[in-house]
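Lab notebook, bench 4. The sequencing result for the construct came back, and we need a structural model before the next group meeting so we can plan mutations. Quick request posted to the team channel:

Model the 3D structure of this chain.
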Amino acid sequence: MPICLQDILMPTADLIQAGGVVMVPLIVLSLVMWLLIIERAFFFRRLYRKNMTAHTALSFIHKDKMPDPEKYRGAVSLLVRQFIDSRTGNQQLDRHLLDATVARINRRLPRFLALIGVLAAMAPLLGLLGTVTGMITTFDVLAIFGTGNAKAMAGGISQSLITTQTGLIVAIPGLYMKGFLERRADTLSQRILRMGLYLKRHV
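Done. Here's the predicted structure in token form:
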């Protein structure tokens, strides 16, 4: 039986409504966090692919020739292109420029990772806020109707559980992806540092 978009959206809308006002910032937080994760994942993927060897990088630098961007797109190619673009011909100054280029590229690697971690950490706190809000609603019903209005009590308890669950569902993958991207960034940083040291010895 084919699945209609309406069949997917309706339960989602009902879930958001049942979770209360806290669900809106939770969903916005989740969207922002995943947009940043996807941006970093594609950025690192681009730096890992179509890399060049140290010998090839040194050959381009000695010839003062830019690598073909279609053939070489990785982190080493980026280092070589930026260094060639800024070199002066003075050996001592060029070595300092190479160090500056390595530092500049490495500073770009952990970009947004701290923000991803903050957003992932905020998600369960928002879920906890929803839990508190739901329990307050439940106690308000108890204060007014006693235990005679089970439906209203169930709504408050449901709100508490849904927001807590949503907060954890957002936070756990977000924290995992932050750790994964940090490891990718560290690996790339070490690769760029090693290549910078190698090129510095031969410039």
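DSSP finds seven helices and no strands in the chain.
Will bring this to the meeting.
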